[in-house]
Amino acid sequence: MKITVADTLTSMGRVLRAPAADRLDLLRAMLEPVRDMYRFVPGEVDLADLHLRSFGFPLDRDEERCLAALDTLAAADALGRMRNALDEASAVLLKGTPGMEGPDITVLFVLGDPGDPHFMGPILGLAGSGGLAGYITITLWPFPENVERLEAIAVHELHHNLRYGPGGVVWDPATVTVGEHVIGEGLADAFARELYGDALGRTRIGVPSLDDEAVFGKVLSGLDVTGMENFTAWVHGDASAERFGATPVGLPTGAGYAVGNRLADAYLAATGRTAAEAVRADRTEVIDTALRHLGR
Fold this sequence. Notes:
The chain is 53% helix and 7% strand. By secondary structure, it is an alpha/beta fold. It has two domains: 1-168, no CATH class; 171-296, no CATH class.
């Protein structure tokens, strides 16, 4: 299992300092290592277009602000810290599940868009993806809280990568449940917390609703909902659902993370397992055990 963290701080600086006419091609070249992430998408994928339509840094404004953010990340040794954390965490995960084989992983870390009010506001300057085996992408704005949590952010996504990697939990977009997504987030946070403590290990958007019983009950009611098009509202909350054109369900930002943390904690407490040992635990087993432990 080899983990490669691309030197995107250098690449992003090159993009942002280039003449405007050259930036798009330079951005495409920077994103090329993760092209195979989109192998299931019909037709030719324009990686630069995907970057600009999500939360990726812009090419036509905020250059100085973005360059200053890159300086902040370089001073914090962002890539080195994440590289070391991923190497150490992968050893813990492979030891926790003997015989499990981890994929080679490419990590792409990119600066987010400081002009995007949803990215900078409700989701607190962070979007990560680690569910497709072999790839981790992290889009981040270096708020102090995010810089402090760089290691925890990276290992959270690594836990996803091994959960859904070869021989692991199958993620079928048509049949996967909200419950699987919620448990995946809860176990990934539990793993980050085992390594870095509760303050750094919890995904920040889930913290405000952690003890909200109404949110807990609402998310429990949707655990059997299927189809990835429904997941944004149930896991990330209504604000994100509205941003991406999905139907809100009456949940705050990060609701699924909050509930996932509670269910994962209850499962781990009941079984005595670690999150590394439970990286591929069946979601039904986790949910049922957790609810029994909680007296639900």
